[in-house]
Amino acid sequence: MLNIKELLDKVKASPYREIVIRAPHTGVVEFAGLKQGDTVRGPGGDYKEKPGTLLANLTREKNKKPIPAPEKGVIEAVHLEHEGQFVEAGEPLVTIKHYLTRKEVIELILQEALYLFRAPERAKYYFVPEVDQKLKVSGKRSVKVHDGMEILIVSRMKRETPLAYTGPDGIIYSVYFGRGDNVDEGGPLIGVCPEDQLTVIQDVVARIQSEWEEEE
């Protein structure tokens, strides 16, 4: 039986996620003057078209590329030893402590609470027509699945093959891909909730939505 209280306590004890910003390619680093404890913002705008706080610039062959913050948070560390130095791709430059949003907390709990049916290979995935129609008309929690049920179509290199669900019986609670999206091997496709756990999970989601305070 899922211990929701234990999961919530675990998240509350450490309501942060550390984001390590690495050099996207080789180049010479020039930091933007930020220090430990400074607050940074993530991308803004309706379409996230406004970049986050500038963390550093990386210059390669006289081409300067800005490195913005991907999420809002607080600077945990700046690797100033790289200032003015040439670094390899993947070198850690800045660490940001990101306070989890309400949506992220719910997603964390759901990833622990649900059975995740994962992609067997990198490909595009589609629901079979009857499942797709039911999802569109009645919503995610209208579809019951059982082991061996063909629910998806795998589309790769112009071939399409059916994919049967393997796992416990339950209801589709979450869908983790969009139509036409490429999903990496091992990436979650759907989250399945046993019917007897549905009320418990809905209660905890409602609790997080009402209790979790987001940082400004």
Automatic annotation (TrEMBL):
Domain (Lipoyl-binding) ranges: 52-96
Pfam assignment, any one: Biotin_lipoyl
InterPro entries per the UniProt record, alphabetical: Biotin_lipoyl (IPR000089), Single_hybrid_motif (IPR011053)
Top-level taxon of origin: Bacteria
Name of this protein: Lipoyl-binding domain-containing protein
Organism this protein belongs to: Pseudodesulfovibrio nedwellii
